[in-house]
Amino acid sequence: MNTFQIQILPLDLPLKRRFTISRGSRDEVNNVLVKIHCQGITGIGEAAPNHRYNETQESAMSFLDSFGSYETENPFDISLLVEKMGQHGDGEFAAKAGLEMALYDWIGKKLNIPLYKLLQAPGRTGPRTTYTFGIDKPEVMKEKVEEAGPYPLLKIKLGTEYDKDIIEAIRELTDKPILVDANEGWKTVDQALDMIRFLDKRNVFVIEQPMPAECVREMKEVRLKSTIPLMADESITGKESLQELSSQFHGINIKLMKTGAISTSLKIVHQARKIGLQVMVGCMIESVIADTASALVGLWADYADVDGHLLLKENPMEGLEILPQGHIRLRDLPGLGLQ
């Protein structure tokens, strides 16, 4: 029998700038560092709980603490851990993702193989990642454009009364392609369609979650009339019918902290492909630890938004690389490739 000792630590991460979306602002994120120890090898993971899903640093740590140690005859059976976590309690998907991430990292280190090779990814280089701007005044957005100089794709948070002013201010400085994320901030069909018509002329290549997740009927109408691909974010946690989502969106944004597992996320990617949905892999605001795990899933995606670690003042480790043209790349090291 293999016994894994689980170690959990608070991971408080100050941001370079205050980060604002349509639901609120933050200057720091409060995540959880997860370590598992067995046979002299340590696997590392990270949980990034989100208030939108009734999760906090305290609730994630409480779940992991109560889970205790993990015993298994076959330490390479990821599905068994996922099953046991599900039996342990509902919710707390960020905590579950952090623990499964740590086990994956342990397995790669134990076998002395990078996870992208173990999982037979198409390669270790994935799509270009966006660089995200939180909501801010137009004049501050201009400063952020300068900070984002090395990154070819921008992601702009909207959902305010001055959305058009923000876009116009950015377009005065750059013509880089933009992904817009409204974070459920547009409340009516008319407002959503008005913004889509406006953005269609300003080199916007994707719009994430225009309306609240509960606006199913409204989103079906918006999808029919949209000239820009629409991506589900808050509307997908991993338990929804992808067929139903395809009537509202052109694609889905998969986040480990919502699906609760790398293994679950990969299954969703393949299911989405079968019905013609585009796939994006995103992240919460998290360190390079969780972003590297997201980048691993992103190797199978059309789009990537794996930049949470770029918004932090500092990172606890080194992990994924972002190449000069913006492509994400995994390190050729065992496990997740963290150092």
Describe it for me?
This protein has 339 residues and is of the alpha/beta class. It has two domains: 2-112, Enolase-like, N-terminal domain (Enolase-like, domain 1, 2-Layer Sandwich), CATH 3.30.390; 118-329, TIM Barrel, CATH 3.20.20. The protein is 35% helix and 25% strand. A hairpin with a 4-residue loop joins strand 14 (321-322) and strand 15.
Label the overall shape: globular
Q: In which range does the helix fraction lie?
A: 25-40%
Order of helices and strands: EEEHEHHHEEHEHEHEHEHEHHEHEEE
Query: How large is the share of residues in beta strands?
Result: 25-35%
Distance between the first and last residues' Cα: 29 Å
Strand order of the largest sheet: 6-7-8-9-10-11-12-13
Observed structural traits:
339 residues; alpha/beta; Enolase-like, domain 1; TIM Barrel; eight-stranded parallel β-sheet; 12 helices; 15 strands; globular
List the helices and strands and how they pair.
Layout: E1 2-21, E2 24-38, E3 41-47, H1 57-67, E4 70-72, H2 78-88, H3 93-111, H4 115-118, E5 125-128, E6 130-133, H5 138-147, E7 153-157, H6 163-171, E8 178-181, H7 189-199, E9 204-208, H8 216-225, E10 230-232, H9 242-245, E11 251-254, H10 256-259, H11 262-274, E12 278-281, H12 288-298, E13 303-304, E14 321-322, E15 327-329
Parallel strand pairs: 6-7, 7-8, 8-9, 9-10, 10-11, 11-12, 12-13
Antiparallel strand pairs: 1-2, 1-4, 2-3, 5-15, 14-15
Helix pairs in contact: 1-3, 2-3, 5-6
